[in-house]
Design brief:
Length: about 475
């Protein structure tokens, strides 16, 4: 009976769902097929090959525009409950605006959605995974408040075309990543660097854009389609490096929740500690108001509560300490840490797949509990978690360990901390175009041969491992490293 108890503890709750994710620019290729217009990533990679590790681009990527049936086959072999992919805005709306809808774009996503459903796999769709139509960047991109209404137009088209079959929508993937790394640091598309301001303007515009899409779904689509709409935020977990710096670690947690407080908190608006600190720093810099733009009371009410679940992506953790005078702070993975003069490091004992991707499984559980404490006992869906190596290892033991150890923490969060987690998503189904790392970072459960014109896909050991977890709906912890 002891054995039974142990096994029961390792079971995922009934109804818990497993998936895997990709994103349009990272897998589709076919960048200029038919009437598709360029996205900011097409423009950025074509104009700045030197900013990409292997000078590559997503022109072909995994060629999933052509090989989508193969991808569905892989998802089916894994036994996925759902497949998370994103729609390329410029493929569906080449003008950026809804005055013209591409027939080929419609056909492609209809085929993919129908193919998934025919194979018993639920489609989970992200509207914005960073590939803005270049035509809208020419309007100023996410620093232009008008983008919120352009995004609502796009969402209207997508909900209208696919909402009869798509029941889980994510408006945005990781606003923190594109607001900070793109619009503040200028390191990724569109390559616009507006230090200390671009990220905050982007944050406000994106919060409003999300809320507009959510409220549109409520008024126009919810009664007939009965789906769920949310977004997914990326979180690192932060711990103080030295005793006495808990307050700084908490400030970093709140900075990363900049894109959550307006939506999920009871009060709405920016996280108070972050808002206060940025206002103080702005005042010291001689400004009469904060660089973090205020919301009007109407905007606060408009954004607050616009969710049906909390989507989150977790990969890694950091230690926080006050920077030494003159210390150069890195912009990655969170350029905003320089705002507060905080240095982010990793503990040497945390196993590194890539320099930035160090594995600290307990951070995942602590993050889930922290989010529950901040925002209440709401539904959490893990929309990304995964591990990369810089070599295309086929017997990928490190990735298997990463998935097992992180899934173990999810189970602890569910069983011990009573966090209501209903879904887990592996990033990624297949190796793909890893932004400025090009094809040098391998995240796939399935290997892709990028030298092969047919982009041959071969499941790794981790794919077999994940399939076994899904099939048994439980975790075998006999190999666990026991965090
Ligand atoms: C995510 N970090 O980005 C994105 O959603 C994916 O498109 C991407 O391929 C994947 O994770 C792997 O990088 C991240 O700093 C960006 O911890 C930054 C971090 C994590 C994920």
């Amino acid at each position: 009976s002891l054995l039974v108890a142990a096994c029961v503890g390792r079971k995922f709750p009934p109804g818990f769902k497993f998936g895997a994710a990709t994103a349009s620019y990272q897998v589709e290729g076919a960048w200029n097929v038919s009437d598709k217009s360029p996205s900011i990533w097409d423009t950025f990679t074509h104009d700045n090959p030197d900013l990409i590790a292997d000078k590559s681009n997503g022109d072909v990527a995994c060629d999933s525009y052509r090989l989508w049936e193969t991808d569905i086959g892989l998802a089916k072999d894994l036994g996925l409950d759902f497949y998370r992919f994103s729609i390329s805005w410029p493929r569906l709306l080449p003008n950026g605006h809804s005055n013209y809808v591409s027939e080929d774009g419609k056909r492609y996503y209809n085929n993919l959605i129908n193919g998934l459903i025919e194979n018993g796999i639920e489609p989970v769709v992200t509207l914005y995974h960073w590939d803005l139509p270049q035509k809208l960047q020419e309007f100023g991109g996410w620093t232009n408040p008008d983008l919120a209404s352009s995004f609502e137009e796009y969402a209207d088209v997508a909900f209208g075309l696919f909402g009869d079959r798509v029941k889980t929508w994510l408006t945005f993937n990781e606003p923190v990543s594109f607001c900070e790394i793109s619009y503040e640091a200028g390191k990724t598309a569109p390559g616009v660097a507006l230090p200390g301001i671009g990220n905050y303007i982007c944050a406000k515009v994106v919060m409003l854009a999300h809320a507009r899409a959510y409220r549109l779904y409520d008024t126009k689509f919810r009664a007939k389609y009965r789906g769920k709409v949310g977004l997914t935020n990326q979180h690192l977990w932060f711990e103080p490096k030295n005793s006495g710096e808990e307050e700084n670690a908490e400030l970093m947690r709140n900075l990363m929740a900049l894109y959550s407080y307006p939506i999920y908190s009871k009060t709405g608006g920016w996280p108070p500690s972050v808002e206060k600190r940025i206002a103080e720093i702005s005042a010291k810099q001689g400004y009469s108001r904060s660089r973090l733009p205020e919301f009007t009371p109407e905007e606060i009410e408009f954004i607050k509560g616009t969710y049906d679940f909390y989507g989150l992506n977790y990969y890694t953790s950091r230690l926080v300490e006050t920077a030494k005078p003159g210390e150069k702070l890195t912009w990655f993975p969170l350029s905003g840490s320089s705002e507060f003069g905080l240095a982010l490091t990793a503990d040497p004992s945390w196993k590194a797949g890539l320099a930035w991707l160090v594995s600290y499984p307990p951070g995942f559980r602590r993050l889930l509990l922290w989010l529950k404490q901040q925002f209440g006992d709401i539904e959490f869906k893990i929309m990304e978690n995964g591990y990369a190596t810089s070599e295309p290892v086929m017997y990928d033991e490190e990735r298997v360990n990463y998935y097992r150890d992180h899934l173990e923490q999810v189970l602890l969060a569910i069983n011990e901390d009573k966090v209501f987690v209903t879904a887990y998503t592996a990033w990624s189904l297949i190796d793909n175009y890893e932004w400025t790392s090009g094809y040098t970072s391998r995240f796939g459960l399935v290997n892709v041969d990028f030298n092969d014109p047919n982009r041959k896909r071969t499941p790794r050991a981790s794919a077999h491992y994940y399939a076994a977890v899904i099939k048994s709906h439980s975790l075998d912890l006999s190999q666990s490293r026991g965090y």
